[in-house]
Each structure stands twice: as structure tokens, then as C-alpha cells.
Amino acid sequence: MIPRTEAELFQRARALAGRTLGSIAAEHGSVPPVELVKAKGWAGQLLERALGASAASRAEPDFQHLGVELKSLPVDARGRPRESTFVCTIALSEIGDVEWESSRVWRKLRRVLWLPIEADRRLLPAERRVGEPLLWSPSAEEESALRFDWEELSGLMGRGAVEAITGHLGKWLQVRPKAANGQARRRALDADGVGFATLPRGFYLRAAFTARLLASHYAIGRP
DNA sequence: TTGTGATCATCT
DNA sequence: AGATGATCACAA
Predict the structure, then answer these.
(1) What whole-number distance in Å separates Cα of residue A106 and Cα of residue A101?
(2) pTM
(3) Which residues lie near nucleic chain B, judged by CB under 7 A?
(4) Which of A21, A46, A164, A173 gives 20 to 30 Å between its CA and that of A117?
(5) Own/partner pairs for A98-103, CB < 8 Å, 24+ apart?
(6) What pLDDT does residue A38 have?
(7) What is the pLDDT of residue A220?
(8) What CATH number was assigned to the domain covering residues A6-217?
């Protein structure tokens, strides 16, 4: 069940292209929800199962032995991403000591299997089709741009300014809340290295980034 | 309880 | 409309 090579993983992903989530769900004993409001991660978790990823939720790529991260990407009828893409949570008390090469962001984004999913709100989850997969690594320019954002944001957090960060910062990568609710708290360090509790946050890729990514690899997304 | 899977819902 | 801030379910 676990793909042994990247090629095998990609081949398996290509076999899903054009199929509906409902038909894939039927093969894995999964019952499609009528709405995603209480099942936001359903499609992503179904695709993990269908492709043989471990269901484990760790701060590592989904296919750790291959170094590949699986990301479903909701797209509209024109193939444009409908949402930003969550990358990882932020260890606020350590972020100041981490380098880009060993960061969670880079470990997850250095190799990604993108799986576009039809995400028109008028479609039931079961009716939505899977698109052609894209096995992607950032180009040198893309990596450089992502690293620039990451270093700016990480620098601020490392200096204790996490609460000064808003979703407006970062050209391609942004920091936004990532929590069960507004009462959730995570340990962070202030400018003097003193611990305090704050809302958990995560790194997200802006939809503009994934839109460019799709446009440069598919014949879509261009007016 | 924390991180991963994300989308929802509100504001601009 | 698009983006930011808020939120929901599940596994380990």
C-alpha cells in the first residue's frame, strides 16, 4: 500500500485524476459528508489513504521515506486556487533558533505532490473531481522568495514580536492563526526571552503563489 | 494536548 | 470578490 518510489506515488496519483471523491471514498470505506463545514479535512485525509500515506499527523512530510508532502488544492471552475494552503504550525519558542534549511516550512515544501480538487461550492463533496497531479519542487527563484518571507516572519517571531504579525505580511508566505478556537494558547518568548502564552499560528502559502504554480505547469489559470 | 487535514465566516 | 482571522475533526 505504501508507495516505494516517487514514480509509483505519482502513477497512483495520476490514476485518481478525473475521478470523483465519492467513487474514491467508496473504495476506502469512507462516507462523504454532505457539507465540509464539519469535515474540513475530509478530502485531504481521503487522498492520503488512497495514496498510501500514513494517517499519522506529524511535523514531517506525508511520505517521509520519499521526502514528499501531499497537498490537496481546492480550485474553482477556471482552475484557480480557492484557498490559501496551510503549511505547518510554528514552534514559537524555537523559531528564532532555526535555519531555513532545517525549518518545517522548507522540509515540507521542498517536494510536494499537488492534487487539485474541484471545489465549486455548488458541488457536493462526493461529486467533486480530482485533477491531474503535479509533483513539484520550488525553483531556485521560488525557494529564494519563500526563504525571504520566512526569514522576515521568523525574525519577527524570534524577536518576540509574534503579536505584531498579521496576515498582511509576507509576499507568498504568511502567518495566520491555526487553532481549535480563539481560546487556544501556545508558549512563546517575548523580546527578553521570557515566556508568555499566545494564539497558536501557522505558515500558509498565499493563493497567489499556488495560482502561479498551477499556471506555470498547466495550460490553465490564464485569462 | 499538539500538529495535520483544511475550509468557514467576516471584514474590507 | 478577495483576503484575513477564526474555527472544526481526527490521530498520536
Answers:
(1) 6
(2) 0.97
(3) A 35-37, 40-41, 43-45, 47-48, 57-60, 62, 69-72, 74, 82-84, 86, 88-89, 91, 104, 117, 119, 121, 178, 180, 184, 186-187, 200, 202
(4) A173
(5) A98/A154, A100/A147, A100/A150, A100/A151, A103/A150, A103/A154
(6) 97
(7) 64
(8) 3.40.600.10
